[in-house]
Amino acid sequence: MALGLSFELSPAGSCEEQPSHQALSDRSRPQAWLQESIRKIIDKSSIKFICSIKLDTKNGKTEDKILVLATWRLSFLAPKIPAKVETTFNFLEIRALNSHPDHQVIIDTDKSGYTLRFESREHLNHVVSHINFALSRIFNNSIFAPSICHSDSDLSEGSRKYSPSSETSVETQRACGGFSETYAALCDYNGISCKEEVQWDVDTIYHSQDSREFNLLDFSHLESRDLAVIVASMAYNTWFTKLYCKDLRIGSEVTEQVLHTVSKSSSLEEITLENAGLKSDFPQKMATALSENPASVIHSINLAHNSLDNQGVSSLIQQVCRLSKGLRLLNLSKTSLTSKGVVSLSQGLCSSDEYSNSLLHLDLSKNPGVLSGEDGSNFYLFLSQPNCLVHLDLSGTDCSVDSLFGALLRGCCADLSFLNLSKNAFSHRKVKDTLPLFRQFFSSAFSLTHVSFASMKLPPDVLRAVLMGLTSNPHITDLHLDISSCELRSAGAAVIHELFPRVSSIATLDISDNGLDADLLTVLPALSRHPSLKHLNLGKNFNIKNRVLDEVLQKLVLLIQEEECALQSLSLVDARLRSRGTVLVNALGSNTCLRKVDLSGNNMDDIGAKMLSKALQINTTLRSVTWDRNNTSAAGFLDVARALEHNFTLQYMPLPLSDIGQAYRSAPEKTEQALTK
């Protein structure tokens, strides 16, 4: 498949909008009977011009031929019936087109050369004009457009007017920069059918939404070579600035065209190829492609969930740094990055102030061991320099969290908003020495909105330092703090009980799966009447005996019934409350603050469904309820269905697929009836 053109395509509108020419004389035009025969073998809607010419042969003689000029190609036919195409080529195969005196034109293509004579300058000008016009629409006057048309004598103004270098040759009103026209030209060049659905989606959906992001998932049902042509059509397109592909394996054909587009595009700013099955050498090839494109404006690269070569990644980073806009986003999550790769990456990041002044989003997550040991020191050096990082995800990198905060304090206080350190560890020998750094960072950060320490053993002293720092921080509000699965237990519960009421910046708190259990009796009062707490996740903390569970649930009911309660959402996923949880479900009926609840995984049986049914009949504030894995039978679903008929404020309740499957096996007809309701 001839996609890797030495010059390749961009969008266009429709060459049928070609400028009007004077009516050509009928002299030298084929007879009507021959023209009719030609239209039977060449799509008549694409034919722009037919005329007689003389074509030089290899033995020095000339032959009479019929030239057929179509939208994207030139064809030569013998002047006889039935008409038969002897030679045809797409305009993109032309490497040079030279005009000479006596109406002569010499055309050099990829495969051959042709010398032809027209019977009038008028015909010659018409053909050259159309070819120039078509190419100008394909290349959108890119600096990479080939200059193929030359003349030994003056061409008419009509021919020069539509040359590829003319600034007026491409009007700006074509849908999405004329993508559909370029796509059609490339399909013709590669000998594949032009998919009208692609053109319709771009011209109608993308255009109406003013979308600048081309999403390959919209065409994931097409074959690989169709996708390759689609990507190739972006190379000179000036409309689309983003190329997006996630969870779609792209083959070598498509990858080749992605690289070609990177090497030619002067508009592409963001590229996402997440979990796209890229080969390990892709970063090195992309670095090479960028080096060939001085006009590139790429600043955001997401290659997450692909196994990549470390040295190639380093080369890519260094190359992007040389570009005009620097690097704003880099996502290398789960890319088999090693500690050596991070050393190389860190050296690249530290090599230029461009990174400190441009890099906003950095994700190295899910690369185990990548920041362990001394190899992470260069990376911490970059973080310690004043920078403009807004989003930093180092989850699952085995970074030493306590060693990190000194760097964060020095370089990231001003702009850092999102910080994910989950699934890492503390080197407990150094914790006491670094506690002041934790406290100072969380008291000094200006912009934090999301912090995660999830799935790591969080020492109580660190939790204390974090909360005390937040207590004295006047800059941040609406913070999401995720300390789920941190093994807090009684010691952590004591810290929350003591300090949380004094923290006014936390709006979302996730303390699920911390073995709090009976210690919830001391935690819940600390959360009560909290003015800023809007979202609370308490799941997997209820492994306690029935009597204590009843006390905890009563305190939880009191918490959500407080007049001053600011809670908007409550999650009790996998709390395993069993039938005792119905006291909480029942309290939802009169609750006026909660907008969203998730009660999945509590095995509350049909009695729980019945209580939910009653609550939903009178509650007017809930907008979202998630209810699954509660051992609900068809009878329970019928209760809920009847309640929903009387509730006009609930907006979202996903199908409880787990319980539905179980109920359907035992009572299929009743279950269907409930679901229909």
Automatic annotation (TrEMBL):
Top-rank taxon: Eukaryota
Gene3D superfamilies linked: Pleckstrin-homology domain (PH domain)/Phosphotyrosine-binding domain (PTB), Ribonuclease Inhibitor
Domain CARMIL pleckstrin homology: 47-140
Protein name: CARMIL pleckstrin homology domain-containing protein
Listed SUPFAM superfamilies: RNI-like (SSF52047)
Region (Disordered): 1-28
